[in-house]
Amino acid sequence: QVQLVESGGGLVQPGGSLRLSCAASGFTFGNYAMRWYRQAPGKEREWVASISNSGGITNYADSVKGRFTISRDNAKNTVYLQMNSLKPEDTAVYYCKPMALGNYWGQGTQVTVSS
């Protein structure tokens, strides 16, 4: 059974940083690329970043490029999202998802950027 457990969210001031984690189980983690998505109140879920199964290729949405870094540790079955220079518009629930493995989602982790 595929399980995705996101953590690391919280309340942070503009300009601050957070590191999100997503612990995955129930599938062969190292075989799958992973993505981070986010959903702000009243908005559609949007893609944030992707990382290849080996970690060698990463891609980012223009809105986070240069501020966020996606990484993974295949030995720990975990994908990370380091978020720096946070802005109020980054406020959302953040989710991780394996690519091409079906419609599996975790519960997400809330990130609130506010002074």
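Above is the first protein from milestone M3; the second protein from the same milestone is given next.
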Amino acid sequence: QVQLQESGPGQVKPSQTLSLTCTVSGDSITNRNVAWNWIRRPPGKGLEWMGIIAYDGSTYYNPSLKSRTSISRDTSKNQFSLQLSSVTPEDTAVYYCNAQWVWSYWGQGTQVTVSS
């Protein structure tokens, strides 16, 4: 079973960069079968896919967020990370990391509030 755990600050100020890390156990982030995703849920809204990092480190982003989003990884720690720049209060959400293949595993989610 794959386990994922998000970590990072719970509050970020407007115009700053939000940084989160997902620590993975039970599988390798270099598994070519698995897509490693960041997804968020703003309050009162549905899930929004933010981007993916594949087994080879290639990345793909939601076009609506692409200019502000970066996903990277540290294979030595089996972690992948999200950076979202120039945040506004509209970026307040619960942020999830996700592993997707024929199955889907989710982290528990972490609340990030953008506020001064």
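Note on the second protein: The radius of gyration is 13 Å.
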